[in-house]
């Protein structure tokens, strides 16, 4: 290929890549670098006067009881949804994979919650959890278990769990699809050979199915981890971080101090810490899960 032809190809490639690169630089790289700078300031988000305070925000973060509480809530919620989302999603995938009739109907029904926005799902469940007219307490009344009625979102021992239930309900259908695709990629010959050799259903599941869908576990647990660490919508709608600070997560702390309390510099520093936390935890999880993947 002559130089003229190569230049033409380079211009064509630049024409395709250029707009995406500009968009990426303008909306990802520049804001990220800017956020890193603002995390070292006491900027309120409005004033043109930006005071550089060095590591002051980071010192406050790591000595703040409020941040420690938000970190604890974030980790607890992330662990809860990672475990239960994936357990329920795998169970649903196994169920749908074995259903012969109406399998598409079941897939659609289980996937519908995924299509509902986080704000809407939060409103729906907030009404369901209501002590006076919520469907959950009404059901307990009707079946003679009125003693179990709770202020589901007002009880500080239950608040995070109730939010976790909403997140699991909304997200399990998405992970189900990934598990289902992985299950259907397993060759029937492998399972038939194991059955001929006398393997029980449990042994086929634990020794063949689970190892062969380990790649799906890596994907789903990674997504669960990231989604758990950045959950915001449901908390905003259902509890506003309360009662007190019992459901305030790192992302919600960032929002409250950055926008409600006018401390953009501190809020941005919280965001930087969250980014580092996500990168560290995701790297550890990826290394752990990928070491257990089985190549077909």
Query: What's the helix count?
Result: 13
Multimeric status of the protein? single chain
The proportion of strand residues reads: under 5%
> Helix/strand/pairing class, anyone?
mainly alpha
Percentage of residues in helical conformation = over 70%
Main beta sheet strand tally, sense and closure: none
What coarse outline follows from CA principal-axis ratios?
A: globular
Low-confidence stretches: none
Short structural summary:
Helices cover 73% and strands 0% of the residues.
General description of the model:
The chain has 296 residues and is mainly α. The chain is built from 13 helices and no strands. The chain crosses the membrane at residues 12-38, 75-96, 108-125, 160-181, 265-284. It holds the Pfam family BPD_transp_1. Residues 71-285 form the ABC transmembrane type-1 domain.
Which properties best describe this structure?
296 residues; mainly alpha; 73% helix; globular; MetI-like; Sugar ABC transporter permease; ABC_transporter_permease
């Amino acid at each position: 290929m002559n130089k003229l032809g190569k230049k033409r190809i380079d211009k064509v490639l630049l024409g395709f890549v250029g707009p995406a690169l500009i968009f990426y630089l303008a909306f990802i790289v520049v804001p990220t670098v800017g956020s890193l700078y603002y995390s070292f300031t006491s900027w309120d988000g409005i004033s043109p006067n930006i005071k550089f305070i060095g590591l002051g925000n980071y010192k406050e973060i790591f000595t703040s009881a409020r941040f420690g509480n938000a970190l604890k809530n974030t980790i607890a919620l992330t662990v809860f949804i990672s475990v239960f989302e994936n357990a329920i999603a795998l169970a649903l995938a196994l169920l749908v994979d074995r259903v012969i009739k109406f399998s598409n109907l079941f897939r659609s029904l289980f996937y519908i919650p995924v299509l509902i926005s986080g704000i809407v799902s939060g409103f729906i469940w907030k009404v369901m959890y209501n002590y006076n007219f919520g469907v959950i307490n009404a059901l307990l009344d009707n079946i003679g278990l009125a003693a179990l009625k709770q202020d589901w979102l007002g009880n500080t021992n239950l608040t995070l769990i109730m939010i976790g239930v909403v997140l699991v309900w909304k997200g399990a259908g998405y992970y189900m699809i990934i598990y289902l695709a992985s299950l259907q990629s397993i060759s029937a010959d492998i399972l038939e050979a194991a059955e001929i050799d006398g393997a029980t259903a449990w042994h086929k599941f634990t020794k063949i199915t689970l190892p062969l869908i380990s790649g799906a576990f890596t994907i789903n647990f990674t997504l669960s981890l990231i989604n758990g660490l950045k959950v915001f919508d449901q908390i905003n709608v259902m509890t506003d971080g309360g009662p007190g600070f019992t459901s305030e997560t790192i992302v919600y702390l960032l929002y409250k101090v950055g926008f409600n309390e006018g401390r953009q510099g501190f809020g941005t520093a919280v965001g930087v810490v969250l980014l580092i936390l996500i990168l560290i935890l995701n790297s550890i999880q990826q290394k752990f899960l990928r070491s257990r993947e089985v190549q077909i």
